[in-house]
Design goal:
Subcellular location: Cell membrane
Number of strands: 10
Organism: Fervidicola ferrireducens
Oligomer: single chain
Helix content: 25-40%
CATH superfamily of the domain at 1-79 and 196-259: P-loop containing nucleotide triphosphate hydrolases
Low-confidence stretches: none
Bound molecules: adenosine-5'-triphosphate
Strand content: 25-35%
Keywords: ATP-binding, Cell membrane, Hydrolase, Membrane, Nucleotide-binding, Transport
Shape: globular
Protein name: Taurine import ATP-binding protein TauB
Main location: membrane
CATH topology of the domain at 1-79 and 196-259: Rossmann fold
Number of helices: 8
Distance between the termini: 32 Å
CATH architecture of the domain at 1-79 and 196-259: 3-Layer(aba) Sandwich
Structural class: alpha/beta
Length: 259
């Protein structure tokens, strides 16, 4: 492949195999996973429980570093010391003894020893965009679930990551807060267009936040299809035939029904 073509991709996964070793057995969690994420792309990864979605994210985050195959971030082997990798988890990952502002700066602090005035101004700007400007001095225990997730989202955008990995970030939230957070995520994402892998259990969420949708089955985890999503960022189409037929197709693929 030509250099110009390769440079279009921010994330490249080729023939990825991951095994978990326990004392009794070797468990194959991923089997020959292939996936590309374009610069500024969002791929939503959807699949049944236990198919290997989190394992895939952990490889991309550099948390799992024993694997077979190739995993490239911006054309270089994944390396958390070199790449800025933003990871948002379902349980927010906030430190309970630190206030909102300090929690929001944690990701950047890991990457940068000295936080300067410009960094703090940018942090304030992002926190204001996510609607937290009045809550900067609170502790996580004094926030709602949605507010905690806002802090977690602000934290990854403040560190200006090379790639963003979202592991079912909104699944613990009630339906209304969840929709608000999806809107907020896309709104903040639009200004940075950071290349994102968004893992979700929900077909509706995948169809709202994914420019592309990858369907995984397993274990062992495999990607059975990657499709373009014409409904990216659109909510009002819920009654269209095309929307429902795509949703049905996704559900069938997740269940392993191939027509
Ligand atoms: N540390 C481990 N040791 C052994 N097996 C593991 C380990 N972690 C995960 N697994 C197994 O690997 C498979 C993939 O797990 P993973 O957490 O990646 O799935 P998932 O698709 O993210 O699931 P869920 O949607 O329920 O979060 C599962 O079958 C799981 O039981």
């Amino acid at each position: 492949m030509s250099k110009a073509k390769r440079a279009l991709y921010m994330i490249r996964v080729r023939n990825l195999e991951v095994f978990y070793n326990s004392s009794r057995r070797k468990f194959r969690a991923l089997a020959g996973v292939n996936m590309d994420v374009e610069k500024g792309g969002i791929i939503a990864v959807i699949g049944p429980s236990g198919c290997g979605k989190t394992t895939l994210l952990y490889v991309l985050a550099g948390i799992i570093n024993e694997f077979e195959g190739e995993v490239l971030i911006d054309n270089a082997p994944v390396d958390p010391r070199k790449h800025r990798i933003g990871l948002v988890l379902q349980d927010y990952g906030l430190l309970p003894w630190k206030r909102v502002f300090e929690n929001a700066l944690l990701g950047l602090k890991v990457k940068k020893k000295v936080i300067n005035k410009k960094d703090k101004e940018y942090a304030e700007y992002v926190l204001t965009r996510v609607g937290l400007s009045g809550l900067l001095k609170r502790y996580p225990g004094e926030l709602s679930g949605g507010q905690r997730q806002r802090v977690a989202i602000a934290r990854v955008f403040i560190m200006k990551p090379d790639i963003l990995l979202m592991d079912e970030p909104f699944s613990a939230l009630d339906a209304i807060t969840r929709e608000e957070m999806q809107d907020l995520f896309l709104d903040v994402w639009k200004s940075d267009s950071v290349s994102t892998v968004f893992v979700t259990h929900s077909t509706e969420e995948a169809m709202y936040v994914g420019k592309k949708i990858a369907v995984m089955t397993g274990p062992p985890g495999r990607i059975v299809t990657i499709m373009d999503n014409p409904f990216f960022g659109i909510r009002e189409v819920k009654d269209s035939d095309l929307y429902f037929s795509m949703k049905l197709k996704l559900k069938e693929l997740i269940k392993g029904i191939q027509k």
